[in-house]
Every structure is written in C-alpha cells, then in structure tokens.
User: What shape does this take?
Amino acid sequence: MYKPPQQRSKSRIPTTAPKTSSSQQAQGGFLVQPKGIETTGKQQDAPKYSQEAANHIMAKMLAATAQTSPQPDVEGLGLGQRMIQAPAVVDTLPIQRKLTVGAPGDRYEQEADRMASQVMSMSNNTLQRLLVPKEQTEEKVQTKSLKKSSTVPGLGENTVIQVEAFIKANQYQQAIDAIVSDQAKAGRINMSFLDGGAIYYNSSLAGEGQVNPPGYAGTGKKQKANPSRVEIGSTAFVNGVSLLYSSMMHEYQHVLQFQVSGTSPSKVPGQGLNPGLIHQQEVEAYSWEAIHSKQTGMYSKPTEMQEIWRRLHDEHWVNLSATEKKPLIDIVKRAYKVAQNAVGKKVTLTFNP
Assistant: This one.
C-alpha cells in the first residue's frame, strides 16, 4: 500500500493471534549456508605418488583382499574383489592394469604396504562416501533446496524452515531476505525494480507494508521507473510465513504497477496520488493475494481470507466508479470466488459488482 492517505490502517491479526514483542527491532543480515556433508575429522589432501608406487599399492590391496574374502557372493565382496571380478571398472581408473610386486622391503613395497593397510581399514561406508563424485553431492543438496513446501507451495521447503526460524528469533530482516532470494530465483521478483535490490524491515511502520511511487527516469522510449523502496512492518510477522509472504508480494504488485505502461503486467499501471488510481491498484494487489492464496498458504486461513476480501471490497472496490471498475472486474470476480470457497459456506462475503 501507499503511505497516507492510503496506508493500511487495520491489522490482519485474528482475535486468537499471538501478540508481537515490544522489543522487536531490525536485525542485521547474514547468509545461511546450506548444510553439506558433515565430516568427523580434518580432511587432508591425498598424497601424490609415482606410477610405479601406485602399481605397488594396487597390487597390495588386491592381494590382501583376495586372501581375506574368499566367498564368491558378489554382494558380500570387498572393494578389492569387486575390482578383480570387474576389470571393466579397473579400466576406468587412472592406473595401469599391469601390476607388479617389487622386491620385499624396497621403498615402493613399504609405501604400498602402508597405503593398502590404510585403505583396507576403512569401512565400506567411508569408501563409498569418498568415492561419490562432488557433482552428485551438490545435485542432492540443490534438489532438496528446490523442493516446494507443502504448507507454503510458493516457497522452497528450506526457505520456509529458515523463515520460520528467523521469525521466531525476531530476525525480521533475515526472514524478508530469505523470501526475496527465493522468489528472485523463481523469477517472481525482479530485484532491479527494488531500491538497493532488497525489501526492508521497518519496525516503526504501522500495518504490514508500504511502497510509494518512485518516479521515472529518462524520457520517451527510454523512460523507466526508478527502483521502488518497499518496507515491511511488524504486523506482517504476527501470523507465520504465509502472512509475511502474502504481504510482501502484495507490495511487490505495486512495484509492478509503477513500471512504465506497456512494460508493466498490471491492468492499472501508473504512478501518482490520484485517489481513483490508488483504489484501483489496491484492488488489484488484494486480488492477487486472494487468487494466489493457495501458493502463499493463506487459503487455509479463513479469518485471513475474510480480511483480505473485506479490505479489497469495503475499503477500495466500493469507492470506484463503474468506469474505474471495468478493467478489474474479471480478476475481482476470481478473487471473490477463491475467497468465498476459503471461508466456507457458513460465511457469506459481500460483493457488489
């Protein structure tokens, strides 16, 4: 929403919602790194050996394994025996297949004894973990981070977990940053449209959020909107990730509305403090919240959905003329249908087309 005269004046907090702490304040940002594979000890770079030494090491490993594991069952074979019974795999190793055993006690033999003993002492799980390509490990981590949340399908599962933790710790700026990053990667937020490439937490702001027309730069075909400063208030954090996400995307709809006509996806693009345009743009932003409520997780919150429709209809829609309503009527009807289904048959939402 805009600053006065169009700032959100009423909270969406349901009667059963928890009160926010008076000590809430903006926090500094930090980056949460994805969890990787944990190790129990300090890893060291593997030493480099000559080709002849490598030959001795392989010979020792194969000889030791052949003596200790004579069973023919392939599933129960050790690493050395599997390599013996699968020469095609050995072909792929950067070691010659022709193996020789040197004279007892020479330096290559001692080196081979030490390395073979070290390798044979490792468990199969350890060997498997060390042999897994780095690309496969990174792919598994990336796949997990891209998995969508079941409660907030518009966000990644890891993002929802992070945001919940940030909200619980009153680290509100970090919670905002996590959602912006997620939505930018998904292509739903263009960070170049945002002042400083970010959305900001403002502890003194009344309501969930605000953004004001940023003005334009350039003229003619080169004209474009300046980046918009979007601020989120404390009220957006009182009812979990869904309310925060929905409130942030509401404000981002205004950012899109402020872009130059012809490039903006809005049905009512433009900038200014004309009351009719402001009401139109708020109707469109609240319609987005209702229509995308399953994506944000708000659909499962009837009280919140009822409040979204009340604001859309009672605070803005009824103030539009028939001409001003015309470009928005279709999306408002869609928003009404979704909101009515969300609140259930026991509640009848008012709608005056």
User: Anything to note?
Assistant: The radius of gyration is 31 Å. The first strand starts at residue 200 and ends at 201. Residues 51-131 form one domain. Residues 340 and 347 are 8 Å apart (CA to CA).
